[in-house]
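Researcher: I'd like a candidate sequence for this fold, 362 residues long. If you have to choose between options at a position, lean toward the conservative one.
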């Protein structure tokens, strides 16, 4: 393997650093005092959260507003491995379901999604997840390697849990919530002109409003926020957790596996992920506050490091070549398996999911 393929071996050693952490300061494209629209969430069933923006307020009067969650950030980054120039780093697995063809990287729960679980990959993935439980992550890396970076939980089958190595979150500090109101005006006076009958009950009135036949006011809806103490993206790559990955008892295979997963993780870690998040939320880097990248040791020391995305991608390519990326493939969604899955019928896979003897590697 070339020198670039062993560049980060110090990070993979037993006495290596605990984590790589990144802090990016962001501002709205409209400027520091621009109005930002965080995501809105449904009310909690117990009524403790009324719905709207996720804002945590503290006794000292400060608050923190969630702008993009760990899951949302992962959903933005992981599917990029299905596109150039990243697709060459991982096997492209496509499930054909009827007229649809869906890449595993686009499935809601990735390797643990029902689409994949009820496909021709079922037995192979069940074997791979059970191997993870037994201390061998290589089979899963051959099918869905990004699941070892972003985490996975096979909650509906083997119960295997793969910890998240990479995570990032965007938060806004000390925000001032705004509200907005609107008035929908129909194109014609349908009732007054006799084009529609006068509604006689609430159900009919609601139907008229829903279909746009009457005036509909909307008052005091969430109208965005103004941020007074900055917007920050915090990302962490947990090297200590990465060093827990093994390819069974084979040390050389474990070394190749860890390099490969590290390459994918560093590629994801350094990907440009700011920009348009949603309507009213377009963020860019703060030109007055450069990003802060630190390597954190177990004793708390923080070492400033520099790592460009192009460097991470070059390392990932070298590590992928050393590991061996499986060929792309397409499998069919199995309606029989889906029907059994819905009914709770246990598909007999015991023979298929028994640990297989590993060939001895040189």
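Model: Candidate sequence:
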């Amino acid at each position: 393997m070339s020198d670039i393929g062993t560049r980060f071996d110090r990070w993979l050693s037993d006495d290596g650093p605990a984590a790589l952490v990144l802090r990016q300061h962001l501002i709205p494209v409209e400027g520091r005092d621009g109005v930002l629209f965080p995501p809105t969430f449904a009310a909690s069933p117990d009524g403790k959260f009324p719905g709207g923006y996720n804002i945590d307020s503290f006794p000292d009067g400060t608050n923190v507003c969630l702008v993009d969650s760990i899951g949302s950030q992962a959903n933005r980054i992981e599917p990029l491995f299905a596109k150039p120039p990243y697709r060459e780093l991982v096997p492209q697995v496509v499930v054909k379901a009827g007229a649809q063809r869906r890449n595993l990287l686009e499935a809601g729960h990735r390797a643990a999604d029902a689409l994949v679980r009820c496909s021709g990959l079922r037995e192979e993935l069940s074997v791979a997840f059970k191997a993870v439980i037994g201390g061998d992550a290589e089979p899963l890396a051959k099918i869905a390697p990004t699941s070892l970076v972003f985490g996975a939980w096979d909650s509906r089958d083997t119960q295997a849990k793969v910890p998240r190595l990479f995570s990032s979150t965007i938060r806004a500090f000390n925000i001032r919530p705004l509200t907005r109101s609107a008035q929908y005006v129909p194109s014609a006076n349908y009732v007054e002109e006799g084009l529609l009958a006068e509604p006689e009950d609430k159900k009919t009135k609601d139907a008229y409003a829903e279909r746009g036949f009457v005036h509909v006011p909307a008052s005091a809806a969430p109208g965005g926020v103004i941020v007074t103490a900055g917007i920050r993206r915090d990302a962490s790559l947990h090297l200590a957790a990465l060093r827990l990955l093994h390819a069974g008892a084979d040390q050389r295979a474990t070394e190749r596996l860890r390099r490969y997963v590290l390459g994918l993780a560093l590629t994801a870690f350094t990907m440009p992920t700011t920009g348009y998040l949603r309507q009213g939320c377009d963020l860019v880097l703060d030109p007055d506050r450069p990003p802060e990248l630190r390597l954190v040791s177990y004793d708390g020391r923080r070492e400033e490091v520099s790592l460009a995305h192009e460097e991470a991608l070059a390392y990932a390519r070298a590590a992928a070549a050393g590991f061996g990326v499986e060929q792309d493939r397409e499998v069919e969604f199995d309606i029989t398996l889906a029907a059994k899955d819905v009914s709770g019928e246990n598909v007999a896979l015991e023979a298929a999911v028994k640990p297989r003897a590993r060939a001895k590697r040189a």
